[in-house]
Amino acid sequence: MLKIEIDPSDLRREKGLIFVQNFNFIENSLREFILKLRSNLLFSNSQIAHFVQEKNAACVQCALVYPLSPPPKESYAHMLFECPVLETLKFEITEENQTLKFLLNNENAVMGSMNQNPVKRTAENIFMSAFNFIYYKNRNANRIITAKFLVKSIFNLINVETDKIELLTAINMLKASDLYLNDGEENR
């Protein structure tokens, strides 16, 4: 008989994403994205190209940022973890902000935050989900996504009137970013 052992920390992480998905004060499009992410229903360019001949399987962001080299296929893993453009954006956002370092852990993107503090875990899940949603939604827009654009878009997505401490914590983590404070010109 097959015995399956489940790590309690994995259950806590998954429950944290479900908790965020069920927040009724965040946009339905973000809630739907979290459901699709958890259910493995997000489609990469390579998956779409398998069914639609006109669709290019390449990563659009890699093609734009590195035009002299052939872009890699955008697989599910490339789209969420391996894309060098995505990794650069994460480093730019977290560069001077220790509270956002959880963004660099690729496991958090799919499984949810490992933070032991439930309020911070939820805030991190909100931020990570919003980050992934904005990147996913804009990755094929045929323009380079900038860290400044991501920070501004995440703020606009999660900045709603509420007294929920988890969301206020996520907003404050974002406001601590140098990119949020910098009102300079945006590249997008």
Structure notes:
The protein is mainly alpha-helical and 188 residues long. It has one domain. Helix content is 59%, strand content 0%. The chain contains eleven helices and no strands. Helix 1 crosses helix 8 (118-138). The longest helix has 21 residues, at 118-138. The N and C termini lie far apart (56 Å).
Rg value:
17 Å
Number of domains: 1
Estimated share of beta-strand residues: under 5%
As an assembly, this protein is single chain
Termini separation? 56 Å
Outline? globular
**Largest sheet: number of strands, sense, barrel closure:** none
Structural class: mainly alpha
Low-confidence stretches: 184-188
How confident is the prediction overall: mean pLDDT?
87
| Number of beta strands | 0
Helices and strands, in order, run as: HHHHHHHHHHH
Tally of individual helices: 11
The residue fraction in helices comes out at 55-70%
Per-chain topology:
Blueprint: H1 8-21, H2 28-38, H3 45-51, H4 60-65, H5 76-82, H6 84-94, H7 106-111, H8 118-138, H9 147-158, H10 165-175, H11 178-181
Helix pairs in contact: 1-2, 1-8, 6-9, 8-9, 8-10, 9-10
Which descriptors would you attach to this protein?
single chain; 188 residues; mainly alpha; 59% helix; 0% strand; disordered C terminus
Quick structural gist:
The protein is mainly alpha-helical and about 190 residues long. It has helices spanning about 10-20, 30-40, 45-50, 60-65, 75-80, 85-95, 105-110, 120-140, 145-160, 165-175, 180.
